[in-house]
Amino acid sequence: MLDNSITLPVDVANNGTIVNQVITRHDPSANRTRYIFPTHSLVSRDVVDFYRTMPKRAGNFNGVAKSAIKVTTDVAVPGVDASTTLTAPLIGEVAFAIPVGALSASIVTLRQRLIAIIDHALTSQLTEKLEI
Q1: Residue 35, class by beta-carbon neighbours within 10 Å (0-12 exposed, 13-18 middle, 19+ buried)?
Q2: What CATH code is carried by the domain that includes residue 29?
Q3: Is the pLDDT of residue 132 over 90?
Protein backbone atom coordinates (compact mmCIF):
# COMPACT_ATOMS: atom_id res chain seq x y z
CA MET A 1 0.00 0.00 0.00
CA LEU A 2 1.18 3.51 -0.75
CA ASP A 3 2.11 5.86 2.11
CA ASN A 4 -0.57 7.95 3.82
CA SER A 5 1.14 11.10 2.57
CA ILE A 6 3.51 11.62 -0.35
CA THR A 7 5.78 14.63 -0.86
CA LEU A 8 6.11 15.58 -4.53
CA PRO A 9 9.02 17.85 -5.57
CA VAL A 10 7.27 19.97 -8.21
CA ASP A 11 8.86 22.60 -10.46
CA VAL A 12 5.62 24.60 -10.62
CA ALA A 13 6.95 27.44 -12.79
CA ASN A 14 9.23 25.18 -14.88
CA ASN A 15 12.18 27.37 -13.90
CA GLY A 16 14.28 24.94 -11.86
CA THR A 17 12.79 25.99 -8.51
CA ILE A 18 11.34 23.00 -6.66
CA VAL A 19 8.34 23.40 -4.37
CA ASN A 20 7.35 20.42 -2.23
CA GLN A 21 3.66 19.58 -2.50
CA VAL A 22 2.23 17.06 -0.04
CA ILE A 23 -0.66 14.88 -1.09
CA THR A 24 -2.59 12.85 1.48
CA ARG A 25 -4.54 9.63 1.14
CA HIS A 26 -8.23 10.45 0.98
CA ASP A 27 -10.32 7.63 -0.41
CA PRO A 28 -8.73 4.18 -0.79
CA SER A 29 -10.72 1.38 -2.40
CA ALA A 30 -9.95 -1.90 -4.14
CA ASN A 31 -7.37 -1.26 -6.90
CA ARG A 32 -7.68 2.56 -6.62
CA THR A 33 -6.38 5.08 -4.12
CA ARG A 34 -7.20 8.77 -4.23
CA TYR A 35 -4.89 11.43 -2.79
CA ILE A 36 -5.76 15.08 -2.39
CA PHE A 37 -3.66 18.22 -2.66
CA PRO A 38 -4.07 20.84 0.12
CA THR A 39 -6.13 23.02 -2.27
CA HIS A 40 -8.78 20.31 -2.77
CA SER A 41 -12.27 21.18 -1.52
CA LEU A 42 -15.85 19.99 -1.88
CA VAL A 43 -16.40 22.42 -4.75
CA SER A 44 -13.00 22.32 -6.46
CA ARG A 45 -11.17 19.05 -7.14
CA ASP A 46 -7.40 18.79 -6.87
CA VAL A 47 -6.77 15.05 -6.73
CA VAL A 48 -4.46 12.23 -7.81
CA ASP A 49 -5.85 8.75 -8.46
CA PHE A 50 -3.60 5.68 -8.56
CA TYR A 51 -5.03 2.62 -10.29
CA ARG A 52 -3.88 -0.98 -10.69
CA THR A 53 -5.05 -4.08 -12.52
CA MET A 54 -3.54 -7.38 -11.51
CA PRO A 55 -2.12 -9.60 -14.30
CA LYS A 56 -4.22 -12.45 -15.66
CA ARG A 57 -2.44 -15.54 -16.93
CA ALA A 58 -3.33 -16.65 -20.47
CA GLY A 59 -1.90 -19.98 -21.57
CA ASN A 60 1.88 -19.85 -21.22
CA PHE A 61 1.91 -16.03 -20.82
CA ASN A 62 1.96 -14.71 -17.24
CA GLY A 63 -0.07 -11.64 -18.15
CA VAL A 64 0.36 -7.90 -17.91
CA ALA A 65 0.37 -5.80 -14.72
CA LYS A 66 -1.34 -2.49 -15.41
CA SER A 67 -1.17 0.73 -13.46
CA ALA A 68 -2.19 4.30 -14.11
CA ILE A 69 -1.95 7.73 -12.52
CA LYS A 70 -4.56 10.43 -13.14
CA VAL A 71 -4.34 14.01 -11.89
CA THR A 72 -7.54 16.08 -11.94
CA THR A 73 -7.61 19.78 -11.08
CA ASP A 74 -10.64 22.00 -11.53
CA VAL A 75 -9.80 25.30 -13.25
CA ALA A 76 -11.75 28.40 -14.24
CA VAL A 77 -12.11 28.95 -17.98
CA PRO A 78 -13.97 31.60 -19.96
CA GLY A 79 -17.29 30.66 -21.49
CA VAL A 80 -18.12 31.16 -25.15
CA ASP A 81 -19.53 34.54 -24.22
CA ALA A 82 -16.84 36.47 -22.40
CA SER A 83 -19.18 37.41 -19.55
CA THR A 84 -19.21 33.91 -18.02
CA THR A 85 -16.62 31.80 -16.29
CA LEU A 86 -16.96 28.05 -16.09
CA THR A 87 -15.22 25.38 -14.04
CA ALA A 88 -13.76 22.50 -16.02
CA PRO A 89 -11.41 19.64 -15.12
CA LEU A 90 -7.76 19.82 -16.20
CA ILE A 91 -6.72 16.16 -16.51
CA GLY A 92 -3.37 14.43 -17.05
CA GLU A 93 -2.95 10.66 -17.20
CA VAL A 94 -0.07 8.21 -17.48
CA ALA A 95 -0.67 4.48 -17.85
CA PHE A 96 1.63 1.46 -17.84
CA ALA A 97 1.22 -2.10 -19.10
CA ILE A 98 4.18 -4.17 -17.94
CA PRO A 99 4.47 -7.83 -18.97
CA VAL A 100 5.12 -10.02 -15.93
CA GLY A 101 8.85 -10.80 -15.88
CA ALA A 102 10.00 -7.69 -17.76
CA LEU A 103 13.49 -6.62 -16.68
CA SER A 104 13.71 -3.72 -14.23
CA ALA A 105 16.11 -1.97 -16.60
CA SER A 106 13.48 -2.03 -19.36
CA ILE A 107 10.85 -0.61 -17.00
CA VAL A 108 13.22 2.17 -15.87
CA THR A 109 13.97 3.05 -19.51
CA LEU A 110 10.25 3.27 -20.29
CA ARG A 111 9.64 5.50 -17.26
CA GLN A 112 12.59 7.77 -18.03
CA ARG A 113 11.44 8.15 -21.65
CA LEU A 114 7.97 9.16 -20.48
CA ILE A 115 9.44 11.68 -18.04
CA ALA A 116 11.59 13.16 -20.83
CA ILE A 117 8.62 13.41 -23.19
CA ILE A 118 6.46 15.12 -20.57
CA ASP A 119 9.26 17.53 -19.62
CA HIS A 120 10.19 18.35 -23.21
CA ALA A 121 8.78 21.45 -24.89
CA LEU A 122 7.15 19.07 -27.37
CA THR A 123 4.43 18.41 -24.82
CA SER A 124 3.38 22.06 -24.77
CA GLN A 125 3.08 22.02 -28.56
CA LEU A 126 0.87 18.94 -28.37
CA THR A 127 -1.33 20.25 -25.59
CA GLU A 128 -1.47 23.99 -26.24
CA LYS A 129 -1.37 24.11 -30.03
CA LEU A 130 -2.73 20.62 -30.83
CA GLU A 131 0.16 20.00 -33.22
CA ILE A 132 0.94 16.47 -34.34
Answers
A1: buried
A2: 3.30.380.10
A3: no
